[in-house]
Amino acid sequence: KCSKKQLNLSRNMLIEFSNEMRHLDKLETLYMNQNNIRSIPEGIFPHLRSLKLVKLSTNRLAKLPSDINQCTSITYLDLSKNCLQSIQPLIGLPKLEELLVEKNQLTELPSQLFQTDNCKLTVLEKKKNIEEKVKTMLTNRRMVLKQRKRNLEESTDPALFMDQVDELDCLLEYKLKVIRG
């Protein structure tokens, strides 16, 4: 067992993720970005129960270990600039707040990432796709809201008015999260 809380192995030309990492059970922050790591063995992440921040960007990861979701304390995970085609193993990370996945080979994002009861995921970067989706969503919302505004102007129902205000608040909150991301 080791009491080290932070480990920075960035820019070391590493090609493998050592099995010995499982003994770092107190580790909270792991930087292994800018290496040449192609895979991560199964059986390491379940032992890293205190791990909160993981930076694995700019490697050659083709897939994630299926048990990474057993490391339930992760709040920040940077997987950008890899060769990932799927991030399915991340489903079930209850504390994940920031996930960076830009510049991978992803074609879709698992909807289950956003469906847990206490999901706090606020930043998900796959910039081009997300920007296009947000623009389309906002354009569609604007059209719907313009129609509702016309309906509201013609209506005298206060309950309908409050529903519209709540909907606008949700839209603005989502837009702010996207802009901050």
TrEMBL record:
Pfam families reported for this sequence: LRR_8
Keywords per UniProt: Leucine-rich repeat, Repeat
Entry protein name: Uncharacterized protein
This protein's record includes keyword Cytoplasm: no
Keyword Repeat: yes
Superkingdom assignment: Eukaryota
